[in-house]
Write a structure and sequence with these properties.
- It is a single chain.
- This protein is an alpha+beta fold.
- It folds into four domains: 2-93, Zinc finger, CHC2-typedomain (DNA Primase, Chain A); 107-241, DNA primase DNAg catalytic core, N-terminal domain (Alpha-Beta Complex); 245-377, Dna Topoisomerase Vi A Subunit, Chain: A, domain 2; 469-613.
- It has 27 helices and 15 strands.
- The strands form four sheets. It has a five-stranded antiparallel sheet, sandwiched between helices.
- Helix 3 crosses helix 4 (82-93) and helix 21 (469-482) runs antiparallel to helix 26 (550-582).
- The longest helix has 33 residues, at 550-582.
- The two termini are 57 Å apart.
Length: 614
């Protein structure tokens, strides 16, 4: 729907909705120079890192990376889509939104989605009534009471009961003019093999309505009350329900997650309900499947710290290991420019005492004991370390395997202080010298020892300290935002072809393509971009207030182009050295090393000449 709001109306809403006023209703903002600052509403923090620019009409959090225009803020704060954010602001500001007509295909899709939401809600009402108001539901209600689920909790989560029999739901909903075909599309009915009609998918089960983050019913989970199989039966995926993108209970938990800054992730419906019932409202559950990247990113909108809760049995430990691999993959994706922020690597693994799941532990020991366990839960590295020790032992071969298993995780840590502390922890745990582990990490990350030694020789002969290529590229894109007069020269000189970071290159290309002319155009540009890393990158760089002149910009461009040429030449030379080493051609290796030394000397002379000329 968002794409059908005319551009002139979007601009009218943007101009009418002052970002400082809108955000100020949710965040205590204080003047800080020409901007405003406050505590970020999207992650827990004690020192303000959330900045709002009234001139540029954008916001950015330097802690969690959230950022955008006024539409982005309302979308993230309220958990709504772009179209709804625009309509909300338009209604507030008194802007009428006549919309362009939808295409036939879009109309059909919107109509089908609306019908699915409606039939799902009607099914939830039917199940709830069967549980609370019909005699057939009394055994199910008694079962929930035995499990410790209070009546208020039943009503809050909308729990229900699917009666025995083959067509109770179909009969009730078809009388309300819902067709069997629609029930089939919603996953509520299954066609008979002989083609004679449909039957209810859920029969004689406790029903758990599954809501999206906006509170709409998108599917169901059904649990047996005896030893029948399958123990849980979930809705199939539909137009409105994709399992990997939904977290059970998030509609109830999101505000608590945002307030506390953390979230518990459990695996079962009743585990989740038990946590909420014991006052631990910042908790969600996966839907009978392993945690997915989409679910992590969804939850990351509301919580910066995540605690994964598992049973102590073999299945629980296996689930924990799978999730650890997923979190490290996500962490690596962040380093490539993904939306998953580095602080989300603050993930804890809580394995409950033997014989307990979250529900049983809370019933026996209570919420305070659970919170104490969570407080002491190890981080990912510590958990992996202890699991490796349990599997391999502390014999000689065991220690070798432990270091092998941990080296990838340790190498992936960007923060050198954190890496050093974890290396120290591992060394002490397995009684090994830190230097041995550090050497292993260096051997994994660096070229051969001979190449490293020769490179050091070349560097001592006049090489310059290595630059930070990504920071240089960031300055180029920030310059385009701060001094857009230079964009024509950048486009003419094909400067962006030398940008190696794909996210930064895409940001620069957007500025060229949209003929960006100044900060007043920024909100309009951001409104055309989907939420994600590209938009966040532009916002973060737009917050830079470096004072630039045309002469300074041209100087920075010359340095950038020269540095890229130097890197290309250096890489070619280094590749030739490594090829000669592989062929054991020592004479060629020495010739190339001498050439590398000469190149370093030439760079130093050029640098000194430039300094004398200033």
């Amino acid at each position: 729907m968002a794409g059908h709001i005319p551009e002139d109306k979007l601009a009218e809403v943007r101009q009418a909705a002052d970002i400082v006023e809108i955000i100020g209703e949710s965040v205590l903002l204080k003047k800080s120079g020409k901007n405003f600052a406050g505590l970020c509403p999207f992650h827990a923090e004690k020192t303000p890192s959330f900045t709002v620019s009234p001139d540029k009409q954008i916001f950015h959090c330097f802690g969690c990376g959230a950022g955008g225009n006024v539409f982005s803020f309302v979308m993230k704060r309220d958990g709504v889509g772009f179209g709804e954010a625009v309509r909300s602001l338009a209604a507030r500001c008194g802007v009428d939104l006549p919309e362009r007509p939808l295409s036939g295909r879009a109309k059909r899709r919107e109509s089908e989605e609306g019908s699915l939401f409606e039939v799902n809600q009607s099914a939830a009402d039917f199940f709830r009534q069967a549980l609370l108001q019909q005699a057939a539901g009394q055994p199910a209600l008694a079962y929930l009471e035995r499990r410790g689920v209070a009546r208020a909790t039943v009503e809050r989560f909308g729990l229900g009961y699917a009666p025995k029999g083959w067509d109770h739901l179909i009969g009730a909903l078809t009388r309300r003019k819902f067709t069997p075909a629609l029930l089939e599309k919603a996953g509520l009915a299954v066609p008979r093999r002989d083609g004679s009609g449909h039957y209810d998918r859920f029969r004689d089960r406790i029903m758990f309505p599954i809501h999206d983050e906006r509170g709409r019913v998108v599917g169901f989970g059904g649990r047996v009350m005896d030893n029948g199989t399958p123990k849980y039966l979930n809705s199939p995926e539909t137009l409105v329900y994709t399992k990997r993108r939904v977290l059970y209970g998030l509609n109830h938990a999101k505000e608590a997650c945002r307030r506390v800054g953390s979230a518990f992730i459990v695996e079962g419906y009743l585990d989740l309900i038990a946590l909420h019932q014991h006052g631990i409202a910042h908790a969600v559950a996966t839907l009978g499947t392993a945690l997915t990247p989409e679910q992590i990113r969804l939850l990351a909108r509301y919580a910066g710290r995540m605690v994964l809760v598992y049973d102590s049995d073999d299945a629980g430990i296996r689930s924990a290991r799978r999730c650890i691999d997923l979190f490290w993959k996500e962490h690596a994706d962040f380093r490539r420019g993904d939306v998953f922020r580095e602080e989300h690597a603050d993930t804890r693994i809580l394995v409950l005492p033997e014989g307990h799941d979250p529900d049983s532990f809370l019933q026996v020991h209570g919420a305070d004991a659970f919170r104490r366990l969570a407080h002491d839960a190890p981080g990912i590295i510590t958990f992996v370390m202890e699991q490796a020790v349990l599997r391999h032992g502390l014999g000689t071969e065991g220690k070798i395997r432990i270091v092998d298993e941990l080296q990838d995780h340790l190498s992936a840590i960007n923060d050198p202080v954190a890496r050093a502390l974890y290396v120290k922890q591992l060394a002490e745990r397995i009684h090994l010298e830190e230097t041995v582990i550090l050497e292993r990490l260096k051997a994994q990350a660096a070229p051969t020892a001979a190449t490293r030694a020769r490179a050091r020789t070349a560097d001592r002969s006049g090489g310059q300290p290595p630059e930070n290529p990504e920071r240089f590229e960031e300055r180029i894109i920030a310059m385009m935002l701060q001094f857009p007069e230079i964009i024509a020269e950048i486009a003419k000189g094909a400067v962006l072809e030398n940008v190696t970071n794909p996210l930064l290159k895409a940001a620069g290309e957007i500025l060229v393509r949209h003929r960006f002319s100044g900060s007043q155009q920024l909100p309009e540009l951001l409104a055309k971009l989907e939420e994600g890393p590209l938009k966040q990158t532009l916002v973060a760089l737009a917050m830079d207030d470096e004072r630039l002149t045309r002469r300074g910009c041209q100087s920075l461009l010359r340095q950038f182009i020269a540095s890229r040429q130097k890197r290309v030449n250096g890489r070619s030379l280094q590749a030739a050295i490594e090829a000669a080493e592989r062929e054991q051609n020592e004479a060629e290796v020495m010739r190339l090393l001498i050439e590398k030394q000469k190149m370093a000397v030439r760079r130093e002379k050029q640098k000194m000449s430039a300094l004398r000329g200033k």
